[in-house]
């Protein structure tokens, strides 16, 4: 834990007291989004202190030219930037001819932020004394509409406390923005058109290179004590990329002046005429009005929480943590559009770039499968199917593979590889396995095989072809090996025979072969169509199987464990407990050379394999491998603690499971890795959900049935969650005395609890 200023609360993220050192961290933590767009919790008014300004639009990106010291063949030509979008929230404010700027106020008191997760809004309030002696109280509420998802609304209220005040509001929209992480300090937006009237303005701009067109808009209303004062701006200033209005008002001491601003984006991904669409969006928002928009927001979030909430009784910090994670996941992706995906920072920052990592398939799909309609998870799989041709191009053009072998990108926006670190781009190839596993996991959970017969089989064939060609035969070992890789543990690069990579390669080939046979029998027309399309023969499948059946796995017979890779035991095996805490996190304190030579593990690697393929190993094998590798794991990846929490629960190490749960659920709230100001770890938040449902709840799917082995941390009085399993909603409630299972329909559901069949019905079933 590196920070502890967020107040414990069951439903809200709360900060009290103004501290310039916390501004950027809070900008991340209080971010808001609605699946279509999102923004950091930047101040609307001028702030001259350190800040990370950021607004983002789903699916909009820029191919920033790769910047490396030494170009190697196969490097991606660009690194996809999640673009800082034009700013629509800006409202400069003058009070008695002085700019409102919290960095320059004589005093700031009663400062409070609240991100209300239950209702989906962000609120900021404070009292301040300006240098001119004017004392004011300010309250600002902002939300991004879930229903009208191209629009957001701000209500900025000012109450003079010690004298009458002349208040000047200067709302603006500005397309002259830049990215924090631009490689070449380029501008990414080209202004096209400005349109303005007395109350609304529009700036249309397009991205260079990718030519996404976006109209940024605003509509302003000035209020006095809640009533529209119907004034026009005294001036309208505009350039090619910015429009700013000026509204002057006078308000008596103790009275409240406000500006209500509607803003947002319409994009060419969804509209042929973005300007007309923006005008229509403003009209729709005005017809509803602020109160109805807010009530619709509350109702929309209530519907989301009805299915996705996890309750924890007796541990407020644990409760706050899980709800923060669920809230951010739903702010980032709602499953409406198969062209979109779940970026690792969502709408909270720019680090990592790209829209999609293997995080989606390995961590996020289980959350979306269980808490939403199965079509949402199917959309995520379809996203990869639609990019299969690009994955084949990637393997062919960058690696020299042939015959339809597919290597999915480590990072992508449109199917092209756009990660600019060699060790990640060309060595962390295990991502192919996660994509295949997600197809298996989707069918296992939903029972919907149609995706495999219609689309998924082509993906599996391309991936199997890749593994067949990527493996090489070792005469010394008389087995197939996979050389020069990086596993999930990115603290070891260019190593040979990473256990997880080798294991999932074998599994992918076996699974693809099994599905080819199944589709041939049950869906012969699809089988004929696909095999003709990809020119697959029985002889080729036999060649695949030679690799899978003779894959090498490094082991230590002495320790009874699988080795993370060849030579792991040659390292200086000093456990983490003996590492000086002042050296942590090692990725910020050590040279990369020292990190690579150390035994320290960034995230689960061998244990990731045990997580995916739990039924392939005995509990005793898990115990030996867990106890060995956990002692060397520094958990400096956000994806690490959740897997350890789940496996600690399996092994009845409940204190450890609880500690890992807290770390994964409060990773950002408590800033464990000293980096939250760069944005939140959105995709790993799904791992927090898994830690409870799969860890403490012990949920698994076996033989088309839900299995549970419920456990509860001693710190909790009880917990509950819901699962949408094959269109039946099952509620699980666990306390120290009993576990109850109920379904929300008249149709019973047979489940297995601690190895025994139980019939869950609409009436409470107690185990």
Q: Describe the sheet with the most strands.
A: 10 strands, antiparallel
Q: What number is the mean pLDDT?
A: 95
Please estimate the helix content: 25-40%
Binned strand content: 15-25%
Low-pLDDT segments: none
Total number of helical segments? 19
- Which geometry do the CA atoms define? globular
- Could you say which structural class the secondary elements and strand pairing correspond to? alpha+beta
Please compute the radius of gyration using only Cα atoms: 27 Å
Span of the ends, CA to CA: 37 Å
Q: How many strands in all? A: 33
Protein name: Family 65 glycosyl hydrolase
GO biological process, one term: carbohydrate metabolic process
Family: Belongs to the glycosyl hydrolase 65 family.
Domain Glycoside hydrolase family 65 C-terminal: 699-758
Overview features:
767 residues; alpha+beta; 10-stranded antiparallel sheet; 19 helices
Describe the protein in words:
Belongs to the glycosyl hydrolase 65 family. It comes from Flavobacterium pectinovorum. Keywords: Hydrolase. Substrate binds at residues 358-359, 602-603. There is one protein chain. This protein is 33% helix and 24% strand. It is α+β, with helices and mostly antiparallel strands. Strands 1, 9, 10, 11, 12, 14, 15, 16, 17 and 20 form a 10-stranded antiparallel beta sheet that branches. The two termini are 37 Å apart. The mean pLDDT is 95.
Sequence-ordered SSE layout with sheet pairings:
Blueprint: E1 12-16, H1 23-29, E2 32-33, E3 37-39, E4 55-57, E5 61-65, E6 78-82, E7 91-95, E8 98-99, E9 107-116, E10 121-129, E11 135-144, E12 151-160, E13 165-174, E14 189-196, E15 200-207, E16 213-224, E17 227-228, E18 235-238, E19 242-251, E20 257-267, H2 274-308, E21 311-313, H3 316-332, H4 359-371, H5 374-385, H6 388-399, H7 422-425, H8 431-446, H9 450-470, E22 472-474, E23 479-481, H10 499-522, H11 524-534, H12 538-549, E24 555-556, E25 561-562, H13 586-589, H14 592-597, H15 606-612, H16 619-630, H17 640-650, H18 654-665, H19 682-696, E26 700-702, E27 705-708, E28 718-725, E29 728-735, E30 739-743, E31 749-753, E32 756-760, E33 765-766
Parallel strand pairs: 27-31
Antiparallel strand pairs: 1-9, 2-3, 3-4, 5-6, 7-8, 7-13, 9-10, 10-11, 11-12, 12-20, 13-19, 14-15, 15-16, 16-17, 16-20, 18-19, 21-28, 22-23, 24-25, 26-27, 28-29, 29-30, 30-33, 31-32
